[in-house]
Amino acid sequence: MSSTTNETNTPESLDGLRAAYAEWRKTVETELKGVPFEKKLVTKTPEGIALQPLYTRLDTAALPAQDASAARGSLDKGYFKTPWEFAQEIALAAPADFNAALLADLNRGQNAVSISLDCATRAAKDADAAPAAEVGCCGLSVSDLSDLAAALNNVELTAVPVHINAGATALPVASLLLALAKQRGVDASKINGSVTADPLGELAARGALPDSLDSLQNDLAQWTLWASKNAPGLSTVGVDSALWLNAGGNAVQDLAYTIAATVEYIRELGKRGLTAEQVAAHLRVNFAIGPQFFMEIAKFRAFRLLWARVAAAYAIKTSPKVHARTGRWNKTKLDINVNMLRVTTEALSAVLGGVDSLHIAPYDEVMGSPDDFSRRISRNIHTLLAEEFHVTAPNDPSGGSFYIEKLTDELARKAWAAFQDIEKQGGFTAALRSGSLQTAVADTAKAKSDSLDKRRMGLVGTNLFPNLKEKDPVARPLATPEFVAARAAEVKKRRPATMSIKLAVTTKIVNAVSPDVAADSAAACIQAAAQGATIGQLFAATHPDAKPETGVTPVALVRGSEGYEALRAAADSYAKKNGARPKIFVAKMGPVLQHKARADFTAGFFSTGGFEMIAKDAYETAEDAAKAAVASGAPVAVLCSTDATYPELAPAFAKAVKAAKPEIQVILAGMPADETLAATYKAAGFDDFIHVRANVRGLLANIQKTIGA
C-alpha cells in the first residue's frame, strides 16, 4: 500500500541508485569493524517493523502505485483554507465550572467545544443512581437539560462545532442537546460536530454495557437514521480507538482494531437499514497519539489507506472524520513539565498526519483536573503549530518522504493482516469476548514495560535524568466526596416524577428500526428532555427490559511510568520516616578514569528510585573503601571500578563490608564476565550486580524492600 506514484522510477535511474546504495552499505560495514549492520543500525519497533538507517527512492519504487490523495482523507487540500479544530476537552465535573472555563478558552483561541462526559453519564446513569466513583470521575457530570444548558451557557451552538462522546448510547445525551437547541430556537440542521455512541468501545473499556449490545446497536441505528435526515452536520457513530494505545498497544493494533470495529458498525447498522455511505458520513474515529513521531504520522496516513480498501469494498465515497488526542501511556507525574514537550511533538505528528480535530492534553492531566495555566499552554501549542510553525501552508508535507511512505506501507500491510485475523475470529465483538484483543495489547504493554524497566526505552525525568529536588505536583481530583453528594441531592430534587414518553413508542424503539420509528423516538425523547427528564429516565423509558451486557474482560489502562512513580513514592515515604532519602555509598576506586564511568552509571541507576548518593572520595584500597562504606551509615554500598581490577578489589571489599555490617547491601557496578566469576563475587558477599542489561525497576524495588523503604 502506498500513496505515491512511480513515474520517475525508470529502470536506468534505479540501477544507478542500487549501485550507489551498495557502495554506501559496503563503506558503512567497513566502519562497523565486524559489528553486524542489522544489530548496530537497524531498529526494531514494537510493531515488528525494522527501521533502516537510510531510505531512498528504492524503498518507494517497489510500492504499488496509488493516488497520492488517498492518504490525505478529508483534508486532500490540506489546512490552508480550513485548519484543524482546536477541540480541547475541559476536565471539570461541575457544569458551571465547565462553562466558565469553556467561555474563557473560546475567547482565547479554542474553536470547538469538546465535552468529555463522566463515567456515570456515559453509562446512561443519573448522578444519584450511579456509584460514587463514577460521578465526575473522568469528565463533566450531566444528568438533565439544566446541566447541559449550564455547561453551554452563552455558547452559540451554530458558531462552533460541538462534540460529545456519549458513551454506550447517544440518544439520551443527543436529546438534551436537541432540546436545548429547540429551546434556543436553533435548527438542528445548522449544528455541526458530533454526538457519538460507541458501544463496542465502551464494552472494551468497561467490560459491561447498560443493555445488550444488540439493543444499543438499535439505538445507534435510530440516532444515525434521524441525524442523517435532520442533523447531517452531526457525526453519530464513534470508534474510540484511543483505548488501545493508552493501554500500551502499538500502532498496528491501534489501526487493526479500529478498522475491525468500523467494519462491524457498517455491517450491524447495515442490517438495521442504514447504507454504508450513511454510516461513513456520520463516522468519527478517535485516535490517541503515541510518542514515536514518524510512526504516528504514518499511522494516520495508513488509516486512510486502510479506509480506502474498506470504502472500495462497500462502495463508499465519504471519508470519516478523524479526531486525535495526545496519549496517556507515556505521561508522567515525575518531572511533570516534560509532558509539555511530549504533547507538543505528538500534536505535530497528528497535524502532519492530517487529522480533522485535535485535543492536546494539558501537561498536568495525570494529576486530575488541569489548571488555567496548563490549559493555556495546550491551547497555545495549537496556535504555535498553525501560526508560528506554518504547518497549515504546505499541502501534505509528509507525502513523498521515502521514510514516511515506506513506513506507511509497512504499517498498513501489518494492520490489514491483523484485521483479517480478527475477521477470521468472527469479527471485533467475537475477538473482544474471547479476550484475544486484550491479551495481545497486554503482551505489547508488558514488552514496553520491560523496556522501561531495563531503560532500553526512556522517559526523561522518570527512568532517565530524574530530578530528586522537584516539588511534588498537586493532585486535583475532578470530583470530591462533597461534590458527589451535592450532585446526587441536586439531581434527585430536580427529577420529574413522571415521564412523557409513551409506551407505544418505547416498544417501537426496542423492537424495530426504521426512519419513521427513528423520528417518533427522537421526537418523544426530545420532548421528554425539554420537560426535565433525566439521562437515566430517558434510557429506562427506551430500554424498559434492559439486560446489561457483561462477561467481557475490560482492557487494562496503564501508564508506563507507574512502576517508577511507586519507587519514588516509597523513597519519599522513607525520607519522611527517617529524615533523609535512602542513601547509596559509592565506593570509587583509584583514579578518575578507573571509576568515573561506572560511578556516573550508578548515580543514574539508583536516582531513578529516589536514592541519594554519597560519592565524595575515591579510594586506593578495598579496605579503605569498605571502612568508609560502613562509616557512612548508608544501607547500600556500590563498588565502582573496572573489570580488570575487580578480581583483586571486589572480594576484599565485599568481605570487609559484610564482616563489619552484614545488613549492608553490597552491589557491584558491572556484569561479571562469566558465571564462574559471578559466583565468586556472590560467595564473597555481593548481593547483586548493576549493568545495562539489568532490570532497574525490579532491582531497586527489591533493595527498597530489603532496607525497609
From TrEMBL:
Keyword Methyltransferase: no
GO annotation, biological process: propionate metabolic process, methylmalonyl pathway
InterPro entries: Cbl-dep_enz_cat, Cobalamin-bd_sf, MeMalonylCoA_mutase_a/b_cat
A GO term, aspect molecular function: cobalamin binding
Signal sequence range: none
A Pfam cross-reference name: MM_CoA_mutase
CC terms in the record's Gene Ontology section: cytoplasm
Keywords recorded for this protein, A-Z: Cobalamin, Cobalt, Isomerase
Sequence ranges assigned to domain Methylmalonyl-CoA mutase alpha/beta chain catalytic in this UniProt record: 44-541
Gene3D superfamilies per the UniProt record, alphabetical: Cobalamin-binding domain, Methylmalonyl-CoA mutase
Protein's UniProt keywords contain Isomerase: yes
Cofactor: adenosylcob(III)alamin
Family according to the record: Belongs to the methylmalonyl-CoA mutase family.
Protein name per UniProt: Methylmalonyl-CoA mutase
Organism: Ereboglobus luteus
